Amino acid sequence: MRKRKIVVIGGGTGIPVILKSLRKENVDLTAIVTVADDGGSSGEIRNAINIAPPGDLRNVLVAMSDMPRFYEKVFQYRFDKDDGALAGHPLGNLIIAGISEMQGSTYDAIQLLSKFLHVEGNVYPSSENALTLQAIFEDGHEVTGESNIADYDGNLRFVYVYNTHDGSMAKASRKVVKAIMEADTIVMGPGSLFTSILPNLVIPEISKAILNTEAQIVYVCNIMTQRGETEHFSDADHVHVLHEHLGRNFVDTVLVNIEDVPHEYMNTHKFDEYLVQVDHDFKGLQAEGCKIISSNFLKLENGGAFHNGDAVAEEILNISERRLS
Description:
Elements: E1 4-10, H1 15-22, E2 27-33, H2 40-49, H3 55-63, H4 69-76, H5 91-103, H6 106-116, E3 122-125, E4 131-137, E5 142-144, E6 156-163, H7 176-182, E7 185-188, H8 193-201, H9 204-212, E8 216-220, E9 224-226, H10 235-246, E10 253-257, E11 274-277, H11 282-287, E12 291-295, E13 298-301, E14 304-307, H12 309-324
Parallel strand pairs: 1-2, 1-7, 2-3, 7-8, 8-10, 10-12
Antiparallel strand pairs: 4-5, 4-6, 9-11, 13-14
Keywords: Cytoplasm
Pfam family, one: CofD
GO biological process, one term: regulation of cell shape
């Protein structure tokens, strides 16, 4: 039998959790990664040398690599806050930036690094250029830039992206649309709804591909609500926003964690962007036309609530297997 083709779409620290588990399985794995991050090290680098932000791509490369643990620690090493111009920059970001400049393309740099790091699968930036995220709130107020969204006190309603360099329409990277159209299963998330998942989906070529692919589309709903993005959201609200952005229902299956997160466990200083556990709205999800898989997907670690990558991967593999049978 041929390998199941699974495409994972997102960014941030969410999708690496399940990519680490999926890469150990006998699947043809592709990650499509957002390039709209404009904060921290990624923001400084993209402004300095006009490349796609490297941070989310770095985390995905590490998650899909079989590199020894020591090499991973080197690639992920972050310079000390007192190190002048290098302060706060992960070494991997600088490596990606240097190779991007050398190759004349972040896309080409990621393909080269994928071979160098023994990545099992494909890693594609969703666009070959840095993108700017534009957010529109319910009161009509607009905020430019992903890193500025949480600063505005309002309810976020809609986002779109455009090329940072010249303001033109965002275009998908090479092979991204092909990967989506040929996939058996497409997984979105886990990750920030408006700033990690949607910046990929609202690229017009990707939106069209998502709506036309025959793949099973799976959404891994976040465990916690997020400050400035999804405050007071239920799982059904997350899915509704996805459907609203693409103009019709397209999510086939939603994976929902129903294990309680102990309130006293959460380190609210370390994870100050996360608020409360996402409410489970079974009827609301049914109204969105989704199959619902609710289970214990929770992993408590270092004072935070995360997805158990192996448990999520198992469900994704089951969905993919049913798709091929």
